[in-house]
Design brief:
There is one protein chain. With about 190 residues, the chain is an alpha/beta fold. It is about 35% helix and about 10% strand. A 5-stranded parallel β-sheet has the order 3-2-1-4-5, with helices on both faces. The radius of gyration is 17 Å and the shape is globular.
C-alpha cells in the first residue's frame, strides 16, 4: 500500500512563533481528566526542552522497563537520546538493541541494580539527566487481572521511584493502568 504519512505529535511551535501553547495541568489534574498519555508526554518533553539551555542537564533520558523501546521512540522524536535502557526480558532487550543500536542497554532486574552504578555505567552524574521514563509492570493493579496487593511486581513502582530519587532528573514519566490509583494500592504510590 501507499506509505503512511509521517506525523510528529511531539513538536510544539517555538515560543517565539507567537502560537499559543496551553500551559500544562498539575499532575493530579492530568490523572483525573484522564488525558491521553501521549499528550502528557509531549508537554513534559516540550517544557523540559524550553528549560534545557538554562540548566546543566543534557538532552538524554533513561528508559526503565524499556521493553522494545516505545518510550525511547517518543523521547527520540521529541529531541532526546537514550543514555541507557534497562529491562529484565532478554528477548525484549534484544529487540531494543535492534531498534536503538546506538543506545546503551542492560538486561537486568531493577530490584537488584544500584541506581548509582547504573548512572555511572551510562556516564551520567546525578542531576544531569533530563528524564527518567518507565512503565513498571501493571498486572497486580489491572482491572483485567487479580488486583492482588501482594503481587511482588507491584513493588517495582517503588524501585522506579528509588531510581528517580537518586538520578534527580528534570522530569520523569511513569505509565501504568488507572487501577494503580485505587485505595488498596495507594500506599505504594504514597511511599
Amino acid at each position: 500500500g501507499p506509505p503512511l504519512p509521517r506525523i510528529n505529535l511531539f513538536r510544539h511551535p517555538p515560543p517565539e512563533s507567537g502560537v499559543d501553547v496551553p500551559s500544562p495541568l498539575p499532575l493530579r489534574a492530568r490523572c483525573v481528566k484522564k488525558r491521553p498519555a501521549i499528550d502528557i508526554f509531549r508537554e513534559v518533553c516540550y517544557l523540559t526542552l524550553l528549560t534545557m539551555d538554562r540548566s546543566n542537564r543534557n538532552r538524554q533520558v533513561i528508559d526503565l522497563f524499556s521493553g522494545i523501546g516505545g518510550f525511547s521512540l517518543g523521547a527520540h522524536l521529541a529531541g532526546f537520546s537514550t543514555a541507557l535502557a534497562i529491562d529484565i526480558d532478554r528477548d525484549l532487550t534484544y529487540i531494543y538493541k535492534a531498534n536503538f543500536p546506538h543506545s546503551k542497554y542492560l538486561t537486568g532486574d531493577l530490584t537488584r541494580l544500584d541506581p548509582s552504578y547504573l548512572l555511572k555505567y551510562a556516564g551520567i552524574k546525578p542531576g544531569q539527566i533530563a528524564g527518567v521514563l518507565g512503565g513498571p509492570p501493571c498486572q497486580g493493579f489491572s482491572y483485567m487481572g487479580n488486583r492482588d496487593p501482594k503481587d511482588p511486581r507491584n513493588q517495582l513502582i517503588s524501585h522506579f521511584f528509588r531510581f528517580v530519587r537518586i538520578a534527580r532528573p528534570a522530569f520523569f514519566v511513569m505509565e501504568n493502568v488507572p487501577g494503580v490509583l485505587d485505595k488498596p494500592f495507594k500506599k505504594i504510590l504514597d511511599d
